[in-house]
Design a protein that fits this description.
The protein has 107 residues and is mainly alpha-helical. The chain has a domain of 71 residues: Winged helix-like DNA-binding domain superfamily/Winged helix DNA-binding domain (Arc Repressor Mutant, subunit A), CATH 1.10.10.10. Helix content is 62%, strand content 11%. It contains five helices and two strands. A two-stranded antiparallel ribbon has the order 1-2. Strand 1 and strand 2 form a beta hairpin. It starts with a helix and ends with a helix.
C-alpha cells in the first residue's frame, strides 16, 4: 500500500473526521470524552481511533491511568499538497469571475 494513501483512507470516514475535529479543537482527550455524543459504542470509537493511529494522525499517551488521544496533523500535509492545485485552480476561476463581474457592472 502506498504510504501517502493512508491519510486519505483514514479521513474518508465521516466519524474519523469528527474525531479529528474534536482533537483539533479540544486538544488531547480520553476515549470517554471523544465518544460523548457519538451514536456508537465506545468499542466502535476505539476502532476508529485505531485506524487514525495506524495512519499516524493520532498518538496515544498515558497520563496516570488515563490514555489521552492527541492529534498529529503532519500526515495531513500529503492531503494538503495533493489538494493545493485544485484550490489554486478554483481561486483562479473565482478571480476571473470577479474581474468579469466588475467589468460588467456600471460605475
Amino acid at each position: 500500500m502506498d504510504v501517502n494513501a493512508v491519510p486519505f483512507e483514514a479521513i474518508a470516514d465521516p466519524t474519523r473526521r469528527v474525531l479529528l475535529d474534536r482533537l483539533r479543537n479540544g486538544g488531547p482527550q480520553s476515549l470517554g470524552e471523544l465518544a460523548t455524543g457519538l451514536p456508537m459504542t465506545r468499542q466502535a470509537v476505539t476502532k476508529h481511533l485505531d485506524a487514525l493511529a495506524a495512519a499516524r494522525l493520532v498518538h496515544v499517551r498515558r497520563v496516570g491511568r488515563q490514555r489521552l488521544h492527541e492529534l498529529d496533523p503532519e500526515p495531513l500535509r500529503a492531503v494538503d499538497d495533493w489538494l493545493r492545485p485544485y484550490a489554486e485552480a478554483w481561486d483562479r476561476r473565482l478571480d476571473a469571475l470577479r474581474r468579469h463581474l466588475e467589468e460588467e457592472t456600471p460605475k
